[in-house]
Amino acid sequence: MAVLRTLLCLLLTSNSLATAHRLDGSLATPQHPISNPELTVHGIPPSTRTHWMRAANAALTASGSSCPFAAFGTAIVNHTSSDNSLGELICTGVNQNSLTGNPTLHGEMVATSNCTAILTDPAGSFKLSTSEASAAWKDLTLYTNAESCPMCASAIRWAGLKEYVYGTSIGRLIETGWGQIDIASEEVFRQSWNLGTSTKSVAEVLTNETDPYFLWQFQEGEPCPGDCVRGEKGRCEER
Ligand SMILES: [Zn+2]
Hints:
Radius of gyration: 21 Å
Strand content: 5-15%
Strand order of the largest sheet: 2-1-3-4-5
Helix content: 25-40%
Distance between the termini: 76 Å
Order of helices and strands: HHEEHHHEHEHHEHHEE
Largest sheet: 5 strands, mixed
Bound molecules: zinc ion
Number of strands: 7
């Protein structure tokens, strides 16, 4: 009898949990990342994902160094443009925390600001109104060479971006010595079910090329990325 009561109790508990899950919407709108880099997603082949992930890395070099300490780079791309099968680069952004002293200026936030300025520039290519710019995000894809922190993942969801593609995962950053808020972007996405938009995630793209940007800082034996070499103090520096 006691066993039966325990079983009944377990059954009721799991039922009420399942109901709660449905009430918060997480079962109704699951948003799992696609972590198979070989898959074609939204008709975009892996070779195109690789191309733009390299653009996120290259944004670092364009900003002055291929081995900055905070080597977080972003590229935002329009894959719905019919002019170019690769897609159209709208803007890039790199981490500017140490440059500005502003702790919120992660690569994704900088790119979001840069793209907003470009889309709404009255003398630029797009000349969008602010409402048109707000609506434009749903056609855009953000590539970041490392998984977004909860702040940036939230910004991506507030923007309602069509896709979010990242290289090195937060878990990998933490295990290699980085201080990070240990919340996967997938979790932020799951909890953003009430925004009325969805963003498709493609995870861990080109990690063999993104990882080296983040491994050298806390591990002396790791090689420097790009054209950099270890300097006298052990820090990676441009040759
Ligand atoms: Zn961030």
